[in-house]
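Ticket #4471: structure output looks truncated?

Reporter: J.K.
Steps to reproduce: submitted the chain below (485 residues) through the standard prediction queue, then opened the result file.
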Amino acid sequence: MLLIFLLVVPLILAAGVFLARDAKSFGVVNALGYCGMLIVSALLLQEVVAGHGMLIEWHFLVADILSAYFIFVIAVVSLATALYSIGYINKDIEQGIISLKKAKTYYLFFNIFCFSMFLVPLVNNLGLMWVAIEMTTLVSAFLVGFYNTKRSVEAAWKYIIICSAGIIFALLGTILFFYAFSLSGCMKSLNWTEAVSTAGSLDPKVIRIAFIFILVGYGTKAGLAPMHNWLPDAHSQAVGPVSALLSGVLLKTAIYAILRFGFIVIKSAGFAYFGNLLLLLGVISLVISCCFILIQKDLKRLLAYSSIEHIGIIAIGLGLGTPWGFLGALLHVFNHAVTKSLMFFGASNIVRAYDTHNLHSIRGAIKTLPYTGTMVLLGMFALTGFPPFSIFMSEFLIIMGAFSKGAYFIAGTLLLFLVIIFGAFMYRFSEMLFGHLPKNRVVQKEPLSGKLAFAFLLVLISAAGPALIYFRKDLLCLVQNLLTL
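Returned output as attached by the reporter:
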Protein backbone atom coordinates (compact mmCIF):
# COMPACT_ATOMS: atom_id res chain seq x y z
CA MET A 1 0.00 0.00 0.00
CA LEU A 2 3.00 2.33 0.24
CA LEU A 3 3.03 3.03 -3.49
CA ILE A 4 -0.70 3.71 -3.68
CA PHE A 5 -0.44 6.05 -0.65
CA LEU A 6 2.10 8.20 -2.52
CA LEU A 7 -0.39 8.79 -5.34
CA VAL A 8 -3.60 9.05 -3.34
CA VAL A 9 -2.52 11.74 -0.85
CA PRO A 10 -1.79 14.48 -3.44
CA LEU A 11 -5.15 13.77 -5.10
CA ILE A 12 -6.97 13.99 -1.74
CA LEU A 13 -5.22 17.28 -1.01
CA ALA A 14 -6.13 18.57 -4.47
CA ALA A 15 -9.78 17.70 -3.86
CA GLY A 16 -9.61 19.23 -0.36
CA VAL A 17 -8.89 22.63 -1.89
CA PHE A 18 -12.59 23.05 -2.69
CA LEU A 19 -13.46 22.67 1.01
CA ALA A 20 -10.85 25.15 2.24
CA ARG A 21 -12.11 28.35 3.90
CA ASP A 22 -8.79 30.17 4.03
CA ALA A 23 -5.45 29.65 2.30
CA LYS A 24 -3.27 29.66 5.42
CA SER A 25 -5.13 26.84 7.19
CA PHE A 26 -5.20 24.74 4.06
CA GLY A 27 -1.49 25.42 3.55
CA VAL A 28 -0.78 23.94 6.99
CA VAL A 29 -2.88 20.86 6.19
CA ASN A 30 -1.12 20.60 2.83
CA ALA A 31 2.30 20.67 4.51
CA LEU A 32 1.23 18.01 7.01
CA GLY A 33 0.13 15.83 4.10
CA TYR A 34 3.55 16.09 2.49
CA CYS A 35 5.20 15.40 5.83
CA GLY A 36 3.38 12.07 5.75
CA MET A 37 4.50 11.59 2.14
CA LEU A 38 8.12 12.07 3.18
CA ILE A 39 7.81 9.52 5.97
CA VAL A 40 6.25 6.96 3.61
CA SER A 41 8.88 7.60 0.93
CA ALA A 42 11.64 7.10 3.53
CA LEU A 43 10.03 3.82 4.64
CA LEU A 44 9.79 2.72 1.01
CA LEU A 45 13.45 3.51 0.37
CA GLN A 46 14.48 1.69 3.54
CA GLU A 47 12.42 -1.38 2.62
CA VAL A 48 13.82 -1.60 -0.90
CA VAL A 49 17.43 -0.99 0.18
CA ALA A 50 17.16 -3.48 3.04
CA GLY A 51 16.93 -6.26 0.48
CA HIS A 52 13.24 -6.84 0.13
CA GLY A 53 13.68 -6.35 -3.61
CA MET A 54 11.21 -4.78 -6.00
CA LEU A 55 7.76 -3.84 -4.75
CA ILE A 56 4.97 -4.39 -7.27
CA GLU A 57 1.36 -3.30 -6.79
CA TRP A 58 -1.36 -4.01 -9.33
CA HIS A 59 1.36 -4.92 -11.91
CA PHE A 60 1.21 -1.21 -12.66
CA LEU A 61 3.15 0.46 -9.89
CA VAL A 62 6.74 -0.64 -9.30
CA ALA A 63 9.47 0.54 -6.95
CA ASP A 64 13.08 -0.60 -7.04
CA ILE A 65 16.21 1.08 -5.65
CA LEU A 66 16.32 3.72 -8.41
CA SER A 67 12.66 4.70 -8.35
CA ALA A 68 12.49 4.66 -4.53
CA TYR A 69 15.45 7.04 -4.42
CA PHE A 70 13.89 9.50 -6.87
CA ILE A 71 10.57 9.28 -4.99
CA PHE A 72 12.40 10.24 -1.79
CA VAL A 73 14.02 13.25 -3.50
CA ILE A 74 10.63 14.41 -4.82
CA ALA A 75 9.08 13.99 -1.36
CA VAL A 76 11.81 16.07 0.33
CA VAL A 77 11.46 19.02 -2.04
CA SER A 78 7.65 18.76 -2.08
CA LEU A 79 7.52 19.06 1.72
CA ALA A 80 9.91 22.01 1.74
CA THR A 81 7.88 23.73 -0.98
CA ALA A 82 4.59 23.05 0.80
CA LEU A 83 6.02 24.64 3.95
CA TYR A 84 7.35 27.67 2.07
CA SER A 85 4.06 28.09 0.18
CA ILE A 86 2.12 28.79 3.40
CA GLY A 87 3.71 32.17 4.04
CA TYR A 88 4.35 33.00 0.39
CA ILE A 89 0.76 32.56 -0.79
CA ASN A 90 -0.70 34.13 2.35
CA LYS A 91 1.43 37.24 1.78
CA ASP A 92 0.23 37.45 -1.83
CA ILE A 93 -3.35 37.47 -0.51
CA GLU A 94 -2.58 40.11 2.13
CA GLN A 95 -0.99 42.39 -0.47
CA GLY A 96 -3.94 41.96 -2.84
CA ILE A 97 -1.82 40.30 -5.54
CA ILE A 98 -4.12 37.28 -5.67
CA SER A 99 -7.57 36.40 -4.31
CA LEU A 100 -8.54 33.43 -2.14
CA LYS A 101 -9.97 31.75 -5.25
CA LYS A 102 -6.64 32.22 -7.02
CA ALA A 103 -4.81 30.78 -3.99
CA LYS A 104 -7.04 27.71 -4.13
CA THR A 105 -6.16 27.37 -7.82
CA TYR A 106 -2.50 27.44 -6.86
CA TYR A 107 -2.89 24.61 -4.32
CA LEU A 108 -5.00 22.60 -6.77
CA PHE A 109 -2.34 22.69 -9.48
CA PHE A 110 0.46 22.32 -6.91
CA ASN A 111 -0.93 18.98 -5.76
CA ILE A 112 -1.72 17.70 -9.24
CA PHE A 113 1.81 18.69 -10.27
CA CYS A 114 3.28 16.75 -7.35
CA PHE A 115 1.03 13.78 -8.16
CA SER A 116 2.33 13.71 -11.75
CA MET A 117 5.95 13.85 -10.58
CA PHE A 118 5.44 10.98 -8.13
CA LEU A 119 3.76 9.01 -10.91
CA VAL A 120 6.84 9.15 -13.19
CA PRO A 121 9.14 6.89 -11.11
CA LEU A 122 6.27 4.68 -9.93
CA VAL A 123 4.86 3.42 -13.25
CA ASN A 124 6.33 0.24 -14.68
CA ASN A 125 5.25 0.85 -18.28
CA LEU A 126 7.58 3.07 -20.33
CA GLY A 127 4.65 4.38 -22.36
CA LEU A 128 2.77 5.42 -19.22
CA MET A 129 5.95 7.06 -17.97
CA TRP A 130 5.87 9.21 -21.12
CA VAL A 131 2.25 10.14 -20.34
CA ALA A 132 3.19 11.08 -16.76
CA ILE A 133 6.06 13.30 -17.92
CA GLU A 134 3.81 15.04 -20.45
CA MET A 135 1.32 15.55 -17.63
CA THR A 136 3.98 17.33 -15.55
CA THR A 137 4.46 19.78 -18.43
CA LEU A 138 0.78 20.57 -18.92
CA VAL A 139 0.06 21.03 -15.20
CA SER A 140 3.17 23.03 -14.33
CA ALA A 141 2.56 25.40 -17.26
CA PHE A 142 -0.40 26.85 -15.31
CA LEU A 143 1.94 27.53 -12.39
CA VAL A 144 4.52 29.19 -14.65
CA GLY A 145 1.87 31.58 -16.01
CA PHE A 146 0.10 31.85 -12.65
CA TYR A 147 0.28 35.65 -12.28
CA ASN A 148 -1.05 36.26 -15.83
CA THR A 149 1.53 38.91 -16.61
CA LYS A 150 2.76 39.32 -20.17
CA ARG A 151 6.16 37.78 -19.39
CA SER A 152 4.79 34.88 -17.33
CA VAL A 153 2.21 33.92 -19.97
CA GLU A 154 4.87 34.15 -22.69
CA ALA A 155 7.18 31.94 -20.60
CA ALA A 156 4.37 29.42 -20.05
CA TRP A 157 3.63 29.15 -23.77
CA LYS A 158 7.32 28.86 -24.60
CA TYR A 159 7.61 26.13 -21.98
CA ILE A 160 4.65 24.18 -23.40
CA ILE A 161 5.72 24.50 -27.03
CA ILE A 162 9.38 23.56 -26.57
CA CYS A 163 8.79 20.75 -24.06
CA SER A 164 5.89 19.35 -26.09
CA ALA A 165 8.06 19.36 -29.19
CA GLY A 166 10.73 17.56 -27.19
CA ILE A 167 8.29 15.06 -25.78
CA ILE A 168 7.23 14.15 -29.33
CA PHE A 169 10.81 13.01 -29.93
CA ALA A 170 10.58 10.97 -26.72
CA LEU A 171 7.34 9.40 -28.00
CA LEU A 172 9.01 8.47 -31.29
CA GLY A 173 11.90 6.98 -29.34
CA THR A 174 9.48 4.97 -27.18
CA ILE A 175 7.74 3.66 -30.32
CA LEU A 176 11.11 2.64 -31.78
CA PHE A 177 11.96 0.81 -28.57
CA PHE A 178 8.66 -1.06 -28.82
CA TYR A 179 9.48 -1.87 -32.45
CA ALA A 180 12.84 -3.30 -31.31
CA PHE A 181 11.03 -5.40 -28.68
CA SER A 182 8.57 -6.72 -31.26
CA LEU A 183 11.42 -7.66 -33.64
CA SER A 184 13.07 -9.72 -30.93
CA GLY A 185 9.82 -11.58 -30.24
CA CYS A 186 10.70 -11.69 -26.54
CA MET A 187 7.99 -9.36 -25.23
CA LYS A 188 4.83 -7.63 -26.29
CA SER A 189 4.61 -4.80 -23.77
CA LEU A 190 6.60 -1.77 -22.69
CA ASN A 191 6.98 -2.83 -19.06
CA TRP A 192 10.47 -1.92 -17.93
CA THR A 193 10.81 -4.98 -15.71
CA GLU A 194 10.41 -7.18 -18.79
CA ALA A 195 12.37 -4.91 -21.15
CA VAL A 196 15.57 -4.82 -19.13
CA SER A 197 15.65 -8.62 -18.76
CA THR A 198 15.42 -9.14 -22.55
CA ALA A 199 17.54 -6.14 -23.61
CA GLY A 200 20.48 -8.31 -24.65
CA SER A 201 18.46 -9.80 -27.53
CA LEU A 202 17.44 -6.45 -29.06
CA ASP A 203 18.80 -5.11 -32.36
CA PRO A 204 21.57 -2.62 -31.39
CA LYS A 205 21.08 -0.53 -34.54
CA VAL A 206 17.42 0.16 -33.78
CA ILE A 207 18.18 0.78 -30.11
CA ARG A 208 20.90 3.33 -30.96
CA ILE A 209 18.52 5.31 -33.17
CA ALA A 210 15.72 5.05 -30.62
CA PHE A 211 17.95 6.34 -27.82
CA ILE A 212 18.86 9.45 -29.83
CA PHE A 213 15.16 10.34 -29.90
CA ILE A 214 14.84 9.58 -26.19
CA LEU A 215 17.85 11.70 -25.32
CA VAL A 216 16.66 14.67 -27.36
CA GLY A 217 13.10 14.35 -26.06
CA TYR A 218 13.69 13.83 -22.37
CA GLY A 219 16.90 15.88 -22.54
CA THR A 220 14.75 18.86 -23.51
CA LYS A 221 12.66 18.38 -20.37
CA ALA A 222 15.80 17.84 -18.25
CA GLY A 223 17.30 21.13 -19.45
CA LEU A 224 20.33 19.61 -21.17
CA ALA A 225 21.91 22.06 -23.61
CA PRO A 226 21.34 22.83 -26.42
CA MET A 227 17.66 21.87 -25.76
CA HIS A 228 17.44 24.12 -22.70
CA ASN A 229 15.84 27.26 -24.16
CA TRP A 230 12.57 27.05 -22.21
CA LEU A 231 14.20 26.71 -18.80
CA PRO A 232 15.47 30.22 -17.91
CA ASP A 233 12.13 31.85 -18.81
CA ALA A 234 9.97 29.28 -17.03
CA HIS A 235 12.04 29.20 -13.85
CA SER A 236 12.28 32.97 -13.61
CA GLN A 237 8.56 33.63 -14.17
CA ALA A 238 7.00 30.80 -12.15
CA VAL A 239 5.53 31.31 -8.68
CA GLY A 240 8.39 31.38 -6.16
CA PRO A 241 7.74 27.94 -4.60
CA VAL A 242 7.16 26.39 -8.04
CA SER A 243 10.57 27.57 -9.28
CA ALA A 244 12.03 25.29 -6.59
CA LEU A 245 9.92 22.35 -7.77
CA LEU A 246 10.82 22.93 -11.40
CA SER A 247 14.54 23.12 -10.77
CA GLY A 248 14.75 20.79 -7.80
CA VAL A 249 12.76 17.79 -9.00
CA LEU A 250 10.99 18.28 -12.34
CA LEU A 251 14.28 18.21 -14.24
CA LYS A 252 15.25 15.05 -12.33
CA THR A 253 12.15 13.16 -13.50
CA ALA A 254 13.46 13.50 -17.05
CA ILE A 255 16.89 12.31 -15.91
CA TYR A 256 15.13 9.31 -14.36
CA ALA A 257 13.43 8.54 -17.70
CA ILE A 258 16.76 8.75 -19.56
CA LEU A 259 18.29 6.37 -17.03
CA ARG A 260 15.46 3.84 -17.42
CA PHE A 261 15.97 3.68 -21.17
CA GLY A 262 19.73 3.91 -20.64
CA PHE A 263 19.89 0.58 -18.82
CA ILE A 264 18.27 -1.08 -21.84
CA VAL A 265 20.71 0.66 -24.21
CA ILE A 266 23.71 -0.43 -22.14
CA LYS A 267 22.67 -4.07 -22.31
CA SER A 268 21.89 -3.92 -26.02
CA ALA A 269 24.37 -1.48 -27.59
CA GLY A 270 27.08 -1.32 -24.91
CA PHE A 271 27.95 1.32 -22.33
CA ALA A 272 30.25 3.36 -24.59
CA TYR A 273 27.37 4.54 -26.76
CA PHE A 274 25.24 5.59 -23.79
CA GLY A 275 28.17 7.12 -21.88
CA ASN A 276 29.68 9.12 -24.76
CA LEU A 277 26.35 10.77 -25.60
CA LEU A 278 25.79 11.82 -22.00
CA LEU A 279 29.36 13.09 -21.65
CA LEU A 280 28.96 15.17 -24.80
CA LEU A 281 25.68 16.78 -23.70
CA GLY A 282 27.03 17.22 -20.16
CA VAL A 283 30.08 19.16 -21.32
CA ILE A 284 27.97 21.28 -23.73
CA SER A 285 25.56 22.10 -20.88
CA LEU A 286 28.46 23.08 -18.64
CA VAL A 287 30.00 25.39 -21.26
CA ILE A 288 26.76 27.10 -22.30
CA SER A 289 25.53 27.61 -18.74
CA CYS A 290 28.87 29.09 -17.70
CA CYS A 291 28.76 31.62 -20.54
CA PHE A 292 25.28 32.81 -19.56
CA ILE A 293 26.04 32.84 -15.84
CA LEU A 294 28.94 35.24 -16.45
CA ILE A 295 26.73 37.83 -18.18
CA GLN A 296 23.43 37.29 -16.34
CA LYS A 297 21.74 40.25 -14.64
CA ASP A 298 18.48 38.57 -13.60
CA LEU A 299 18.66 36.79 -10.21
CA LYS A 300 16.22 33.96 -10.95
CA ARG A 301 17.56 33.45 -14.47
CA LEU A 302 21.05 33.21 -12.96
CA LEU A 303 19.81 30.34 -10.78
CA ALA A 304 18.06 28.80 -13.79
CA TYR A 305 21.29 28.69 -15.78
CA SER A 306 22.93 27.19 -12.70
CA SER A 307 20.37 24.37 -12.98
CA ILE A 308 21.57 23.68 -16.53
CA GLU A 309 25.12 23.56 -15.18
CA HIS A 310 24.23 21.00 -12.53
CA ILE A 311 22.17 18.86 -14.90
CA GLY A 312 25.29 18.80 -17.07
CA ILE A 313 27.37 17.67 -14.08
CA ILE A 314 24.88 14.86 -13.41
CA ALA A 315 25.06 13.80 -17.08
CA ILE A 316 28.87 13.74 -16.91
CA GLY A 317 28.80 11.58 -13.77
CA LEU A 318 26.40 9.12 -15.37
CA GLY A 319 28.33 9.13 -18.63
CA LEU A 320 31.60 8.17 -16.95
CA GLY A 321 30.15 4.80 -15.96
CA THR A 322 32.52 4.26 -13.03
CA PRO A 323 31.03 3.38 -9.62
CA TRP A 324 32.34 6.63 -8.09
CA GLY A 325 31.06 8.74 -10.99
CA PHE A 326 27.65 7.05 -10.98
CA LEU A 327 27.37 7.39 -7.20
CA GLY A 328 28.37 11.06 -7.43
CA ALA A 329 25.74 11.69 -10.11
CA LEU A 330 22.93 10.08 -8.12
CA LEU A 331 23.92 11.94 -4.95
CA HIS A 332 24.12 15.15 -6.98
CA VAL A 333 20.47 14.64 -7.91
CA PHE A 334 19.56 14.96 -4.23
CA ASN A 335 22.18 17.57 -3.31
CA HIS A 336 21.22 19.89 -6.15
CA ALA A 337 17.50 19.42 -5.44
CA VAL A 338 17.71 20.58 -1.82
CA THR A 339 20.31 23.30 -2.42
CA LYS A 340 18.61 24.85 -5.43
CA SER A 341 15.23 24.76 -3.67
CA LEU A 342 16.73 26.78 -0.81
CA MET A 343 18.23 29.25 -3.29
CA PHE A 344 14.98 29.74 -5.17
CA PHE A 345 13.12 30.32 -1.89
CA GLY A 346 15.70 32.95 -1.00
CA ALA A 347 15.65 34.53 -4.45
CA SER A 348 11.84 34.73 -4.36
CA ASN A 349 11.91 36.54 -1.01
CA ILE A 350 14.53 38.98 -2.25
CA VAL A 351 12.74 39.65 -5.55
CA ARG A 352 9.50 40.32 -3.67
CA ALA A 353 11.20 42.64 -1.15
CA TYR A 354 12.97 44.70 -3.83
CA ASP A 355 10.27 44.34 -6.51
CA THR A 356 12.89 43.57 -9.16
CA HIS A 357 14.84 40.66 -10.62
CA ASN A 358 17.74 42.90 -11.64
CA LEU A 359 20.91 42.08 -9.72
CA HIS A 360 22.23 45.64 -10.17
CA SER A 361 19.20 47.02 -8.31
CA ILE A 362 19.44 44.64 -5.35
CA ARG A 363 21.89 45.74 -2.66
CA GLY A 364 22.20 45.03 1.06
CA ALA A 365 19.76 42.13 0.96
CA ILE A 366 21.22 40.57 4.10
CA LYS A 367 20.22 43.73 6.03
CA THR A 368 16.71 43.92 4.57
CA LEU A 369 16.06 40.20 5.01
CA PRO A 370 18.53 38.98 7.67
CA TYR A 371 17.31 35.37 7.83
CA THR A 372 16.82 34.94 4.08
CA GLY A 373 20.10 36.74 3.32
CA THR A 374 22.05 34.47 5.65
CA MET A 375 20.45 31.37 4.12
CA VAL A 376 21.18 32.61 0.59
CA LEU A 377 24.81 33.25 1.56
CA LEU A 378 25.18 29.70 2.89
CA GLY A 379 23.24 28.33 -0.08
CA MET A 380 25.52 30.15 -2.51
CA PHE A 381 28.58 28.47 -1.00
CA ALA A 382 26.80 25.12 -1.04
CA LEU A 383 25.63 25.52 -4.64
CA THR A 384 29.11 26.32 -5.91
CA GLY A 385 30.60 23.23 -4.29
CA PHE A 386 32.29 24.79 -1.27
CA PRO A 387 33.26 22.25 1.44
CA PRO A 388 31.86 20.82 3.65
CA PHE A 389 28.46 21.17 1.99
CA SER A 390 26.90 18.20 0.20
CA ILE A 391 27.43 19.35 -3.40
CA PHE A 392 31.18 19.45 -2.77
CA MET A 393 31.08 15.74 -1.95
CA SER A 394 29.09 14.69 -5.02
CA GLU A 395 31.21 16.83 -7.36
CA PHE A 396 34.35 15.42 -5.74
CA LEU A 397 33.10 11.87 -6.41
CA ILE A 398 32.38 12.67 -10.06
CA ILE A 399 35.84 14.17 -10.54
CA MET A 400 37.36 11.17 -8.76
CA GLY A 401 35.38 8.92 -11.11
CA ALA A 402 36.80 10.79 -14.10
CA PHE A 403 40.38 10.42 -12.87
CA SER A 404 39.89 6.73 -12.07
CA LYS A 405 38.73 6.17 -15.65
CA GLY A 406 41.60 8.16 -17.11
CA ALA A 407 39.20 10.81 -18.48
CA TYR A 408 41.57 13.65 -17.65
CA PHE A 409 40.08 16.05 -20.21
CA ILE A 410 36.62 15.63 -18.67
CA ALA A 411 38.01 16.10 -15.14
CA GLY A 412 40.00 19.17 -16.17
CA THR A 413 37.07 20.73 -18.02
CA LEU A 414 34.78 20.17 -15.07
CA LEU A 415 37.26 21.66 -12.61
CA LEU A 416 37.88 24.69 -14.84
CA PHE A 417 34.22 25.62 -15.23
CA LEU A 418 33.45 24.95 -11.57
CA VAL A 419 36.13 27.48 -10.62
CA ILE A 420 34.84 30.06 -13.12
CA ILE A 421 31.24 29.68 -11.95
CA PHE A 422 32.32 29.87 -8.30
CA GLY A 423 34.03 33.22 -9.02
CA ALA A 424 30.96 34.53 -10.89
CA PHE A 425 28.62 33.59 -8.04
CA MET A 426 30.93 35.11 -5.42
CA TYR A 427 30.99 38.40 -7.35
CA ARG A 428 27.24 38.58 -8.00
CA PHE A 429 26.06 37.51 -4.57
CA SER A 430 28.57 39.56 -2.57
CA GLU A 431 27.28 42.71 -4.28
CA MET A 432 23.66 41.71 -3.83
CA LEU A 433 23.95 40.71 -0.19
CA PHE A 434 26.54 43.15 1.16
CA GLY A 435 26.26 46.14 -1.16
CA HIS A 436 25.22 49.60 0.03
CA LEU A 437 21.63 49.44 1.29
CA PRO A 438 19.30 51.76 -0.70
CA LYS A 439 17.46 54.50 1.17
CA ASN A 440 14.02 53.80 2.67
CA ARG A 441 14.75 50.09 3.00
CA VAL A 442 13.64 48.61 6.32
CA VAL A 443 14.04 45.17 7.83
CA GLN A 444 11.14 43.01 6.68
CA LYS A 445 9.30 40.40 8.70
CA GLU A 446 9.70 36.84 7.43
CA PRO A 447 7.02 34.17 7.98
CA LEU A 448 7.75 31.25 10.31
CA SER A 449 6.77 28.66 7.69
CA GLY A 450 9.40 30.04 5.32
CA LYS A 451 12.04 29.93 8.05
CA LEU A 452 11.16 26.29 8.74
CA ALA A 453 11.51 25.43 5.05
CA PHE A 454 14.96 27.08 4.95
CA ALA A 455 16.08 25.31 8.14
CA PHE A 456 14.83 21.93 6.92
CA LEU A 457 16.78 22.23 3.67
CA LEU A 458 19.92 23.61 5.32
CA VAL A 459 20.09 20.60 7.66
CA LEU A 460 19.96 18.27 4.65
CA ILE A 461 22.55 20.32 2.74
CA SER A 462 24.91 20.22 5.73
CA ALA A 463 24.31 16.61 6.81
CA ALA A 464 24.44 14.85 3.46
CA GLY A 465 28.23 15.22 3.12
CA PRO A 466 29.19 13.60 6.46
CA ALA A 467 26.49 10.93 5.92
CA LEU A 468 28.10 10.05 2.58
CA ILE A 469 31.46 9.41 4.25
CA TYR A 470 29.83 7.19 6.87
CA PHE A 471 27.74 5.13 4.40
CA ARG A 472 30.16 5.16 1.45
CA LYS A 473 30.67 1.38 1.33
CA ASP A 474 26.95 0.60 1.43
CA LEU A 475 26.23 3.24 -1.19
CA LEU A 476 28.93 1.90 -3.52
CA CYS A 477 27.46 -1.58 -3.15
CA LEU A 478 24.03 -0.28 -4.16
CA VAL A 479 25.47 1.56 -7.16
CA GLN A 480 27.30 -1.56 -8.34
CA ASN A 481 23.98 -3.43 -8.13
CA LEU A 482 22.37 -0.76 -10.28
CA LEU A 483 25.16 -0.90 -12.87
CA THR A 484 24.68 -4.65 -13.21
CA LEU A 485 20.90 -4.49 -13.76
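Triage note (M.O.): checked the attachment and the full C-alpha coordinate line is present. The first helix runs from residue 2 to 16.
Status: closed, working as intended.
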